[in-house]
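Page 42, continued from yesterday. The earlier attempt failed because a stray header line got pasted into the input along with the sequence. Redoing it now with the clean sequence only.
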Amino acid sequence: MKVELLSITSNPEKLIEIAGRTSHLSFNRQGKNSEKNFIKMLIKKGHTSVLEHAYATFNISGVSRVLTHQLVRHRLCSFTQQSQRYVSELNFKYIEPDSIKKNSKAHSLFIKFMEEAKKVYLKLKDLEIINEDARFVLPNAIESQIVVSANFREWRNILELRGNIGAQWEIRKLVIKILKQLKKYAPTAFEDFEIDEEKSIIRKIKVR
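This time it went through. Structure tokens are written below.
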């Protein structure tokens, strides 16, 4: 799994402060690092709509279609995904869950099925079946690539939902990688999210 930050709003936390202070025209209260306390106040009071002024775009690759099917349910994001209509999947790679990999019998069945799917796809292509129809035999395990853009408020929503212990394991790993990068550029806006590496989850914490 690879997560590449393609773009992020320049000086995002200062932008959030400027946008937020427009509400009460309190620009005179700006100062060195004033954006940090201002953003903490917004989050504590639940005024997170102001965080929508800042955006981040990620290129995500080496993940399964299982994961991307979950991700595209977040309708406030913008998505551009690798097309199975225009990209040949003759030599597709795939993601194998650890639960299957660690079980020798399950692993054998899984690998056999993936290889069979490749053979059937190839045979369909040899019969001049176009990609958009041949793809009907492709498994959800197949690797995909997707570019995702969202504002900070929506990223916070995704992190909270998909980093939870009840979320699927692969998407939890993804949002942990995303959070680590967001914290580099906007530490205060994501300060109340804590990563538990051992359990591979994200927790919400109280911040002073």
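Notes: The chain has two domains: 2-80+143-204, 95-137.
Reminder to self: strip header lines before submitting.
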